[in-house]
Amino acid sequence: MNNSQPDDKLPITNTVFPPPPSYYKQFTHENVQRYETLTGKPFNPREKGKCRAKMDEKVDVERIEVDDHGDRREVELTTEEREELKDLEERFKKPRADWVQEEGRWMCFNNVYTTEPTIPTAESIGVEPFVDPAEEPQTSLPPLLHSFLHTLLLLLDTLTMTPRKSSALEAAGWDSEGNQYIQHLANLSMNMMVASNQLRTAQSEATLVLLMEKELAERRKQTEKLHAKCAEIAKGIKTLRELGEN
């Protein structure tokens, strides 16, 4: 008799932490125990290498049984048991993820990730580019910051003035007072983020240099302590020799 359970589809939710897939429901105590009975082998999900190797093999035609005297003997599986074992092995197999490599991306918690890390550009995130991609970030970032501060001052100046009527704002195509400055600040911020991402290589190199310098300083400190300890021991030995000679 097949003790395996049918797939229970979970409802699709839009919560921050969605429920796990129904795959975990296959690993019931009854299914695991039945698998061990049919194969005569222990099933331990923690031993991934051994477990997966066993599952990737062809379905066994014999199982190992232990009699009352402790003797092991091979028992041929029936056709029904072979089908049941094959079904259990299919249920226990690791889900295929090769489609991630084929598509080069996957989605997790409503965020899209790529198998090959890429630095986003202004065009890729749908923002009007304000800087030349070939320009060095050290050159493009200061003008962006200057424009950001200037726009922020204009926004503050607008908010301190008497607000206009909603009809005047609608005629200008703005949702609220200072909306044009807010949109410009958002575009400037995203362009600054894109330009800052180009400094990741320099940041990694600088971080590596700092780590190496810190490690070198620590080793020098340990070496100085070692030399001081050796000098202290040598001084003690010299004192003991002088006492012995006297």
From TrEMBL:
Residues 1-21 are annotated as: Disordered. The keyword Nucleus applies. GO terms for biological process: regulation of transcription by RNA polymerase II. Residues 1-10 have a biased composition (Basic and acidic residues). InterPro entries: Med7/Med21-like, Mediatior_Med7, Mediatior_Med7_sf. SUPFAM superfamilies: Mediator hinge subcomplex-like (SSF140718). It comes from the Eukaryota. Component of the Mediator complex. This is Mediator of RNA polymerase II transcription subunit 7. The lineage of its organism: Eukaryota, Fungi, Dikarya, Basidiomycota, Agaricomycotina.
